[in-house]
């Protein structure tokens, strides 16, 4: 995924500004989709969030977290 900008909100949510055709991920990260809706569409969850929600973790969000310097969240 190409990301033009990314940030982490005080409550821990990740906000991304995607480049290209990744607008769906932007909706997910801004809370417009629930974790289950997100999993149903094949959009993966970060490992730490996935453990709390009982959903499978995905490499895409882990990459975003690591790029933001939040690798400590990844378990």
What does this structure look like?
With 75 residues, the chain is an alpha+beta fold. It contains 4 helices and 2 strands. Strands 1-2 form a two-stranded antiparallel ribbon. The radius of gyration is 11 Å and the shape is globular. The model is unreliable at 70-75 (pLDDT under 50).
Question: How many separate structural domains?
Answer: 1
What is the total tally of β strands? 2
Secondary-structure element pattern, one letter each: EEHHHH
Parts with pLDDT < 50 across at least 5 consecutive residues: 70-75
What is the mean pLDDT? 54
Kindly state the percentage of residues in helix.
Answer: 25-40%
Overall form: globular
Radius of gyration: 11 Å
**Biggest sheet: strands side by side, in what order?**
1-2
In DSSP terms (H or I, runs of 4 or more residues), the helix count works out at 4
Largest sheet: 2 strands, antiparallel
Question: Could you list some keywords that capture this structure?
Answer:
single chain, 75 residues, alpha+beta, two-stranded antiparallel sheet, 4 helices, 2 strands, disordered C terminus
Please give the structural blueprint.
Elements: E1 3-8, E2 14-18, H1 23-29, H2 35-40, H3 47-53, H4 59-67
Antiparallel strand pairs: 1-2
Short description:
The chain is built from four helices and two strands. The protein is of the alpha+beta class.
